[in-house]
Write a structure and sequence with these properties.
This protein is an all-beta fold. The chain has a domain at 35-142. It contains 1 helix and 22 strands. The chain has one helix spanning 38-45, and strands spanning 5-9, 18-22, 35-37, 47-48, 57-63, 72-77, 84-93, 101-112, 118-126, 133-142, 144-148, 157-164, 169-177, 185-196, 204-212, 219-227, 231-238, 243-248, 257-265, 272-285, 291-301, 307-316. The longest helix has 8 residues, at 38-45. Residues 1-27 form the signal peptide.
Length: 318
């Protein structure tokens, strides 16, 4: 959190929320691929799900078509309900017995257009070594507003934190506000990470970094959605700054999206901190000819001590 720091205590909630805001930085907006209409694609090659207008579950599915190695596609989910937090998953198709088909989301953002329409945009990438496609699975979780950034200049960032219960998973949504007739208001969640405080028995902390990736100064509400945990496994003990990756096999049902969090452990009195840095969905063709969906998940130790913890997964599906 470089730059001038200010801290504010927000009205008490069940989470005991604490917010720290970073000083505003100046930067040009990132380049964006041309965006495709996700609702139209879902109507053509997939389905409009039960959560298309909010709630919990599948909002939509659609097929990418064949994507070249290293190729990207940008997608826009228009008329996004104000309380919907979105998570994107994939069911890749086109692997061979020797080469997996692999996709991941490389960026996402929430957008407010002039007139008030809210959009969710994301960019996917074929990160494998074979041209193939994937069914995109857009899932939604209902969220609640917990903070507002106030005005943020283009390129500016803020970092917020919340105290959260153990063994719950969290996803962030943004409600930008302040679009003009010539420029949308656009914010991105650039990072999230989990911290085990030094004090024995303290709640976990969930840290969120947001950035104004548009061209106009505006603000966003930060909204959180929580879920239960359906699966957990051990994150190996790793040194400060190290990254550890593992593969979740048989990621079934293949219609589901996975939300992944972390519960750092075992570092008292120094904080243990983990960030989920990558989630790659893969199709593998086994030696018996069967198809298997897998997820490769990478965690990074952001703290100053060697420690481990638990990875916690929740499936999101209709």
């Amino acid at each position: 959190m470089g730059g001038r720091i200010r801290a504010a205590i927000v009205a008490a909630t069940v989470l005991g929320m604490v917010v720290a805001s970073a000083g505003v930085a100046q930067a040009g907006p990132p380049s964006q691929p041309s965006m495709r209409d996700a609702r139209a694609a879902a109507a053509t090659s997939g389905e409009i799900g039960v959560a298309a207008n909010g709630g919990f579950g599948t909002a939509a599915t659609w097929f990418t078509g064949t994507v070249a190695v290293g190729g990207t596609q940008g997608w826009t989910w228009q008329n996004a309900p104000a309380d919907a937090a979105y998570v994107v998953g994939y069911n890749p198709a086109g692997a061979t017995t020797s080469t997996m088909c692999q996709f991941e989301t490389i960026s996402s953002q929430y957008v407010q257009l002039w007139g008030g329409q809210r959009q969710f945009q994301f960019t996917l990438k074929n990160v494998g070594s074979i041209a193939c496609g994937a069914t995109v699975q857009l899932a939604a979780v209902s969220s609640t507003a917990y903070a507002s950034t106030g005005g943020v200049s283009p390129g500016g960032t803020q970092t917020h934190l919340w105290n959260i219960p153990w063994h719950t998973n969290w996803v962030v949504a943004l409600n930008p506000n302040g679009a003009t007739s010539t420029a949308a208001c656009q914010f991105r969640v650039t990072r999230t990470w989990f911290v085990q405080p030094g004090a024995a028995g303290a709640l976990r902390q969930f840290w969120v970094e947001v950035k104004n990736v548009g061209t106009v100064a505006c603000q966003t509400d930060i909204r959180l959605a929580s879920t239960a945990v359906s699966y957990s496994f051990t994150i190996a003990s790793m040194a400060s700054g190290a990254t550890w990756s593992t593969t979740w096999n048989n990621a079934n049902p293949v219609t589901s999206v996975y939300l992944v969090g972390a519960s750092p452990q075992g570092s008292y009195p120094i904080t243990c901190q983990f960030e989920v840095t990558r989630m790659i969905y893969r199709q593998r063709i086994n030696s018996n000819g069967s198809s298997e969906r897998q997820i490769t998940i990478s965690f990074k130790n952001l703290g100053g001590t060697t420690c481990g913890g638990l990875a916690e997964l929740q499936t999101l599906a209709a």
